[in-house]
Design brief:
Chain A has about 250 residues and is mainly α. Chain A is about 50% helix and about 0% strand. Chain A binds a DNA duplex (30 and 30 nucleotides) through loops.
Chain lengths: ~250, ~250
DNA sequence: CCTCAAGGTGTACGGCGTACACCTGATGGA
DNA sequence: TCCATCAGGTGTACGCCGTACACCTTGAGG
C-alpha cells in the first residue's frame, strides 16, 4: 500500500472519485486524471484500466472521450506544454528565450514522465508546435535570419522544451514520484569506481557553494543552466558576427 | 507481406533459421538476432515471441540466455555501444572527442531504435559507462579540471552518444526501417503553415549547397555538427580561460 | 409520448511478459 | 557400461494490456 501526495492510497482516491461519479466524464476530466495518475504513480502505471478505475468508470467509457491511448498521451502532452509561461514582454531575445526554457524546465519537473512521453511520440502536438513557433518568433524579432534561427532550433533540440537527456538521470526513473524520494546519491559502488576511474573522479568534482545539494549528488539546475548558457552564448556570438551557413565543412 | 533488406519476408527468414536450428542458442546469438529484428522491423515488433520465432525456438527458450526483456534490451544496447570506434591516437582532445561522437552517431544511424531504448532504460549499462569513462579520460588528458569535465559531460548530454533529441525526428519513427523510406519531406501542410508562420518560414530556410538534400528536408548531419561544434567551441573557450564553477548565479 | 443520440457497460479477443513444471539428450564418474 | 546430473529447449497457463463491438440507459426535443 503506497501513499500518494495527499496521504491517501490510490484505491481510496478511486473510492472518493466513485462518490463524485455523477459529474460526467469529459475529455479534459480524463486528461487531468491521466496527468495526475502519471505524476503520482509513474507513466508505467498509466493504463486505460487504471485510469478508468481512478475515474470510477469502466475502461471502455474512456473511449468516448479519447480515440485511443496514443491520442490520450498526445492530449496529456498538450496539457503539460500549455503550462509553460508566456514570453516576458520587453526583453531582448536572449532573456526571453532563456526565461521560457527555464519555465519549460520547471513545468517538466512537475511531470517527470513527460520528456520520455514527448520523445516517444513521433510527431509534435499542436501545443508543442505553438510553443516552438513562438520561440522562433522571438528569435526573428531579435534580428536572426531564418537560416540561423533554423539551425539554432536544431541545436537546442529537446533542451528547448526544458529537458536535456542526461544518460544517468535519477529523476527520470519511472517509479512513483509523488513522495520526495530521498534516494541518497549512492556514491557509485567501489567496484564500479575502480573500473571507471575517470567517472569516479568527476563524480564528486562539482564544487557547489551552498549546502542544498547533499553529498556528491550534483545540482541538476546548475548543470542545465550551464549547458543552456553555453549554447546561448555561442548563439549570440554567431548572431553578432552575422553567421550564415554558406560553405559547409563538407 | 512486407519484404525486408534481403528481399525475404520475416517468416521466410524464420524458416531459414529453422533449418539452421541445430546450431544451439547462446546469449550472443540471441542478442544479435534481437538487434537485427529491431533494425529491420522496428523496436515495437521486438517481442520475446517474435524473437523466438526468428530463432526457430519457443519463447521460453530465450529465458535460459537472458534474464528478462529489460536485460535483453540492456544487452542489445551494450552490443550497439561496442560498435563505437576507439579514440584516434595522437590528437588533441577536441578532435578526439569530436571524432568519437561522430562515430557514435554513425553507429546509432544504423540502429534507429537505440536512442529511445537508451533513454528509457534508467541506468547506464557497462558498455556505456566504459565509453563515457574513456571520453572523460580524453578531457582530463587534455588538461581539463575534473570540475569542468563534469559540467562538460552534462552539457553534452545525450549528444555525446551520437544523438540529439530532435522533437520532430523523421528517422526516429518506429516503422520498419530496412528499406530506405523515400518519405518526401512533406512540406508541412498549408493549414499548419498558416497557424505557425515562423515555423513555416524557417522550415525551408537552411541553405544547403549540394543537392544531396532533397527539397526542404534538412540535413541531419549538418545540424548535428552545427550543435556539436557550438558546444565544443564554447567548451574550448571556457577551458582556455581556466573556467571554474566558483560563484554560482544564485 | 415517442425518438434518438450521447455516453456508460459487459463481454471478448488477441497479444504481451513470464512463472513453473516438464522433457531430453549429452556428459562424466562409478 | 550404466546411470546420475544438469544445461537447455518445451508446453501450459496466468494476469496484464489495448480495444472492437453489441448493448443498455437516460434525458432532451419534436
Amino acid at each position: 500500500m503506497v501513499s500518494t501526495v495527499a496521504g491517501k492510497t490510490r484505491t481510496e482516491m478511486a473510492e472518493q472519485a466513485d462518490t463524485l461519479r455523477r459529474t460526467p466524464l469529459s475529455r479534459t476530466r480524463v486528461l487531468r486524471a491521466a496527468v495526475a495518475l502519471a505524476d503520482e504513480a509513474g507513466i508505467e502505471s498509466l493504463s486505460m484500466r487504471n485510469l478508468a478505475q481512478d475515474l470510477g468508470v469502466v475502461p471502455m467509457a474512456l473511449y468516448k472521450h479519447v480515440a485511443n491511448k496514443d491520442e490520450l498521451l498526445d492530449g496529456m502532452i498538450d496539457m503539460v506544454v500549455g503550462e509553460i509561461d508566456p514570453p516576458v514582454p520587453d526583453a531582448d531575445w536572449k532573456h526571453v528565450v532563456r526565461g521560457r526554457i527555464l519555465s519549460a524546465r520547471q513545468v517538466l519537473r512537475r511531470h517527470p514522465w513527460a520528456p520520455l512521453a514527448i520523445e516517444s511520440r513521433n510527431m509534435a502536438t499542436p501545443a508543442i508546435l505553438a510553443y516552438l513557433d513562438s520561440v522562433v518568433g522571438t528569435l526573428r524579432a531579435g534580428g536572426f535570419t531564418a537560416d540561423l534561427a533554423h539551425h539554432v532550433m536544431h541545436a537546442m533540440g529537446s533542451r528547448i522544451l526544458g529537458f536535456s537527456q542526461e544518460l544517468f538521470d535519477a529523476s527520470r526513473r519511472a517509479g512513483r514520484s509523488g513522495i520526495a524520494d530521498p534516494d541518497p546519491p549512492a556514491a557509485l559502488p567501489p567496484e564500479v569506481a575502480a573500473r571507471f576511474p575517470h567517472l569516479a573522479e568527476i563524480a564528486g568534482a562539482a564544487s557547489h557553494d551552498d549546502a542544498s545539494v547533499v553529498g556528491q549528488g550534483c545540482d541538476d539546475q546548475f548543470e542545465f543552466e550551464f549547458a543552456l548558457d553555453l549554447l546561448l552564448d555561442g548563439i549570440e556570438r554567431l548572431h553578432q558576427q552575422g553567421w550564415t551557413s554558406s560553405r559547409r565543412p563538407r
